[in-house]
């Protein structure tokens, strides 16, 4: 765990989604527990938070998510067996997840959207800036994003979103940001945010990805936010109010991310993410890399 001198100490991870895109896999298990190479997807996200010093992690959970709580809990019987066998590397891998940060859980109750999930964190977070990490986006541990966003939050006193450039036809899968270059290095000011616009209505090709560092003023706005796209309370709509208004905690800024991001939100992206990350894995990478070119060549025949 890293020590943390910034004002941001807490990470909120919404995990109440039903994972319908992965059915039937997700009929009885949470999508966040799908393995990405050799760890469940959620473990990458919690590690990312803890690596920047966000040791207080709140998961907004729901039904059928028990496996998540178990994954980050101790398993004394398994640990004792591994210790008896002297299998220290497996023992360490089992203990590494139960030693990761201080993890709390609150249920979302009604599935009313991402904005509603974030609002469920209000009591735990209190009046301090906090991070939100969405599990469908994995950010490569070698690339900086969250730490930069935390710095921009401290500098601006507002809320900070993460942006990537996408092909114009892909923008309807994301929140979209219209920006003003403010002459400062490393971040932009957000003029307008629109949730999943049609390509012809999109103000830009800058898409929101699942990392946010938010001023707690967002909670008051979320309480008044009416259901938007898809009949859900949208975080993007609350951030649009903060972007357009003035007052303490208002103002939204964007960090444009050009590093490695893996989307695990649908079956095909998930498969690609697994292959890319496995190629970079220390133990599995060499074998997979040696096998892949021949396999790829056989596909052309
Ligand atoms: C959510 C947000 C969207 C954002 C996306 C990033 O959508 O509402 O603005 O672009 O996460 O992953 P979801 O993918 O949960 O539908």
Give a verbal description of the structure:
The protein has one domain: Spore Coat Polysaccharide Biosynthesis Protein SpsA, Chain A (Alpha-Beta Complex). Helix content is 35%, strand content 22%. It is built from eleven helices and 13 strands. The strands form three sheets. Strands 5-4-1-6-11-8-12-10-9 form a nine-stranded mixed β-sheet. Helix 3 runs antiparallel to helix 4 and helix 10 crosses helix 11. The radius of gyration is 20 Å and the shape is globular. The chain starts with 9 loop residues before the first strand and ends with a helix. It binds 1-O-phosphono-alpha-D-glucopyranose.
> What is the end-to-end distance?
50 Å
CATH topology title? Spore Coat Polysaccharide Biosynthesis Protein SpsA, Chain A
Q: Helix/strand/pairing class, anyone?
A: alpha/beta
Query: Count of helices?
Result: 11
- In terms of DSSP E residues, the strand content is 15-25%
- Which ligands does the model contain, each kind named once? 1-O-phosphono-alpha-D-glucopyranose
Radius of gyration: 20 Å
Helix content: 25-40%
CATH-level-2 architecture: Alpha-Beta Complex
């Amino acid at each position: 765990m890293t020590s943390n001198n910034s004002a941001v100490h807490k990470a909120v991870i919404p995990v109440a989604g039903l994972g319908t895109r992965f059915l039937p896999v997700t009929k009885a298990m949470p999508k966040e527990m799908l393995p990405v190479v050799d760890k469940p997807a959620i473990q990458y996200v919690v590690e990312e938070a803890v690596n920047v010093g966000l040791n207080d992690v709140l998961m907004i959970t729901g039904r059928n998510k028990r496996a998540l709580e178990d994954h980050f809990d101790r398993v004394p019987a398994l640990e004792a067996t591994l210790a008896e066998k002297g299998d220290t590397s497996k023992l360490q891998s089992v203990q590494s997840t139960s030693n990761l940060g201080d993890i709390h859980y609150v249920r979302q109750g009604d599935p009313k959207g991402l904005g509603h999930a974030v609002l469920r964190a209000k009591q735990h977070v209190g009046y301090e800036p906090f991070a939100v990490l969405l599990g469908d986006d994995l950010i490569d541990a070698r690339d900086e994003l969250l730490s930069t966003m935390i710095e921009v939050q401290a500098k601006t006193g507002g809320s900070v979103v993460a942006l990537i450039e996408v092909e114009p036809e892909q923008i309807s899968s994301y929140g979209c940001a219209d920006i003003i270059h403010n002459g400062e290095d490393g971040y932009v000011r957000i003029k307008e945010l629109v949730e999943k616009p049609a390509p012809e209505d999109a103000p830009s090709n800058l898409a929101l990805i699942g990392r946010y560092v938010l001023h707690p003023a967002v909670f008051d706005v979320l309480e008044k936010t009416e259901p938007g796209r898809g009949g859900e309370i949208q975080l993007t709509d609350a951030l649009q109010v903060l972007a357009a208004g003035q007052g303490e905690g208002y103002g939204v800024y964007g960090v444009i991310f050009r590093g490695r991001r893996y989307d695990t939100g649908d079956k095909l992206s998930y498969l690609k993410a697994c292959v890319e990350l496995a190629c970079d894995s220390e133990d599995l990478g060499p074998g997979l890399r040696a096998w892949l070119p021949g396999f790829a060549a056989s596909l052309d025949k």
